[in-house]
Amino acid sequence: MNRLTALFFNSRHSVFLALLLLLGSQSLLAESKFRVVASIKPIHSILSGLMVGTEGPELLVDGDNQPFDYQMSASQQAGLAEANLVVWVGPELERFLIKPVAQVLQSGVRVVTLLDNPELKILPSRWSKGEDSTERDPFFWMDSRNVLILVDELARALMDADNGRAHLYRRNRAQMLARVAELDRKLEYGYRGLKSGVGMAYYDTLQYFEQAYALKIRGVLAQSPKQPVDALSLLQNHAKLKEGYYACLLTERSMPMPELPLLTEGVDINVGTLDSFGAGMKAGPELYFELMEKNTDTIKSCLQYSGEPVQLAAEDQFQPETAKVGAKFMLIDHNGKLVTEKDMLGKFQLVYFGYTFCPDICPTSLQVMSLALDMLGERAALIKPYFITVDPERDNAQVMKNYVKYFNQDLVGLTGTKTMIDRVASGYKVKYEKVIEEGGDPDLYIMDHSASVYLMAPNGEFITKFAHGISAKQMVDALNDYLPK
Questions:
Q1: Which of 330, 357, 401, 475 has its CA 20 to 30 A from that of 38?
Q2: Sequential DSSP letters for 2-47
Q3: What is the pLDDT of residues 389-438, one digit of tens each?
Q4: Residues ≥6 apart with Cβ < 8 Å to 209
Q5: What's this model's pTM, rounded to 2 decimal places?
Q6: In Å, what is the CA distance from 56 to each residue of 30, 63, 93, 157?
Q7: Distance CA 97, CA 440 (A)
């Protein structure tokens, strides 16, 4: 072999080795691909937004399917076993995943069961039987305040499992939080659009939406397609529909409804079709926002029997977060002293509107606010917390005094006449309404109300709102961004 031939041979040999190395590295990259599997479209959508710039999550229940009777393919079962992270709602919704999840857990796959997350506001099922029942309502994503928390929780899970790309997840988290917060404000300011009538739902998918946005659903036919419809309930609800008791019937796109013809026979009523799983929508980061907006529009249109779009008053239209919030007022504190908006100046203020007879949302929000102040330590002296009642009929100064002492020693309870409360609530763009259950004791009414905590500056200007469901730590992190260093 002459020198020229040897050079040619060595050159080809080097190229061959380089190609082998390249193919090998590609094979290793393929094997090391970070795989995330999501059970249903709404959860897949949030993960997709958080994973922009990566390979993105894989979806199990795709197309127009729903999870109650879903069966995985062989390739999906294999993909589940090879995943780095599996995110599902829980056994109440995805029974088909109970055994597979147990199996992949044993093999070391990281699994996130969202119904088990203590940070989320998870409601008990309205179909639970007995005091010891632990069944949960799985449709938590229908409250956008829950999704604000979900974005944080899933971003943390992704960063823990794939730390090398934590910067991407952190960036996407900030963008997702801004979008979900905007959606939440839009829904909250559309409050009256959901209050034009009483509705009935075929399936029980709206409990979270009802609580978050004061929707009036006073009848539900069935829990899910997995439970048979009670014959007596079918007859009773058919009679109520025929008598005009409900202004609207809400059905679900992807769930079979075999009793619908019997339920609506001879009935003239507006029917709206919800899509709580986003079955008819394209999977991806936009799906959750499209789902919430379309379902809200469906509810508004359905409750307004004429079918005309609901026209909100100018003050109830969606306004940006920087819109003027606050008001001049004269109220009475829990010690019987007169308080005006000028008395609140000089310190940052945390302001919450609620009422003392509130069964869950108000005490939870006040506990979070109080815990956040405790966690701030000495810096809490920069802030004054206020609790303004929306139920002055029952919440006089003495009732407020007995109530606020259970939370924070600095918490000031404020009450007044209905006119005074209306004025300050209007200034803060807080919506509330007295609700008396049909046939119930009129003295045991509840108050539907907005549930955010307002942060006001020492000069009285609005800074931001904290949505209901935020954790104390999240509130502290946000407050530290606004408090002087």
A1: 475
A2: -HHHHHHHHHHHHHHHHHHHHHHHHHHHHHT---EEESSHHHHHHH
A3: 999 999 999 999 999 999 999 999 999 998 889 989 989 988 888 888 77
A4: 142, 143, 215, 295, 299
A5: 0.63
A6: 14, 17, 23, 14
A7: 41
